[in-house]
Amino acid sequence: MSIETSSDERRNGQKTLVLAVIAGMCGNAMLSWFTISEVAFSIFPLIALVLSVQALYQEYLNNPVTEDVPLVGLAAFFVGAFGHSAFTKAQYPDAGSNFFSIIVVLLLLFWIGKKLGYILKQE
User: Among the four 25, 61, 70, 104, which has the fewest Cβ within 10 Å?
Assistant: First the structure.
């Protein structure tokens, strides 16, 4: 996403990234329910996962994809998944350490910020 892109294209890219983060968080919430005994079942992550994946698919069908969006979207998905994992492990310390999850989230956020031009802007 370069500076020359229109505001509609930028908004669509941001929408895609937010939906990817939501899908990652919901996917990890469902995985946490299966793997961590302290986490109770909730239907809401499943509903949000289905709706976010459906919205991502509709976004893919209706709008052209710029060259950076697929890789940055995958990174945003992993930011959501590892971010929720770190949050869950902070709530339930017996589930394990959240150090690796936090480091992965920070590295991915730095890379996304650099790729989108928010960090280390090139003149």
Answer: 61
In this structure, which amino acid lies at residue 27? Answer: G
The tokens for 61 are 């069908």
pLDDT in tens, the chain (123 residues): 444 456 777 777 889 999 999 999 999 999 999 998 888 889 999 999 999 999 999 998 998 877 878 899 999 999 999 999 999 999 999 988 999 999 999 999 999 999 888 887 765
Q: Cα 7 to the chain's mean position, in Å?
A: 22
Q: Which tokens hold the place of 109?
A: 């956020």
Q: CB neighbours of 49 closer than 8 A, spacing ≥ 6?
A: 23, 26, 27, 29, 30
Nearest-angstrom CA–CA distance, 75 and 66: 15
